[in-house]
Amino acid sequence: MSDLFGEDGGFVTTTVDGFLRWAKSNSVWPLTFGLACCAIEMMNLTAPRYDLAQWGSEAFRASPRQADLMIVSGRLCNKMVPVARQVYEQMAEPKWVVAMGACASTGGIFDNYAVVQGVDNVIPVDIYIPGCPPTPDAVIHAIQMLRERISRNDPKGGLKVNA
Ligand code: SF4
Fold first, then answer.
1. What are the strands, taking DSSP E only, across 10-80?
2. Which of 9, 21, 75, 101 makes a 20 to 30 Å CA pair with 34?
3. Model-level pTM?
4. How many angstroms separate the alpha carbon of residue 88 from the centre of ligand 1?
């Protein structure tokens, strides 16, 4: 997509598709969905210190139908799998998933029968964030990567944040 404002202050041309991608990448709305200790760091994201509003993502939605980003923050227990699937399916397309932290990405230290060994066994994940817990800065980095991918029209699929 062309630079929206143009260097010489003149008018700009673009495509409808490019404009829609630009709009989508600047209004990624996360779902209010926390599972464990990582969710505390996710809540931190909404604090003024991190100013998530500058990228248009401060509006955590209570309804999956109004959200396009699921941040899986914490370990996913087998009992919660039907809930996670249902919430994911209720989200509108296009939608993205970030696995926040070691537990969501791989099961982390919980190598046992009760915990899913990576949420990508249950729902497709687009970005993985390492750490226990990852800092809010790492989540912001993931959101930035996601915005870039939406702008470039990257196919969906797993990508790891180097935090
Ligand atoms: S990665 Fe660490 S902080 Fe996050 S849910 Fe697992 S144990 Fe908790």
1. 69-73
2. 21
3. 0.87
4. 21
